[in-house]
Design goal:
Blueprint lengths: L17 H8 L4 H9 L7 H6 L1 E7 L2 E6 L14 H17 L7 E11 L10 E10 L3 E10 L4 E12 L9
Length: about 170
Amino acid sequence: MSDGKAETRTRTVTWRDPLEGVAAAKSLSGLEYLRAIVRGEVPGAPIAALMGFAPVEVSEGRAVFVVEPGEHHYNPIGTVHGGLAATLLDSALGCAVHSTLPVGAGYTTLELHVNMVRAISHDTGLLTCTGEVIHVGGRVATAQARLTDADGKLYAHGTTTCMVFRPPVPGGRE
């Protein structure tokens, strides 16, 4: 531009009311709930809309997300911010765990470990993040995930430990 100012870019983000999904989740198993999100029957997480990623596949103990990195993901040094990879890993890991849970159960991330192994740019192309459960117990679950490009090249990998909240068993111990 002749005035010396950088071109301004904009991005508009829209999402559905997340409380719709929260209500639906109360009557579905984790796997049923996540499959309903993939099918678009209930809203996904607003952060997915904000960051431009989406779940594309879920099965028991496994969740797959995709993202097309863009310059809107950049940090000030000209590469995609590591927070994109960390968020994708956390989402795939948590959803892999969630897919194993019965109606009324939930989880929260206790620990997230992320390893970045190469830089991501807007030229990287479509990235796929696949999370898989390692172990689900009564109160603790663990999972691992990999973030790869279309050729299978690894960009990041990680693990999680989640706390599992199960509904009380009628007549059971507190």
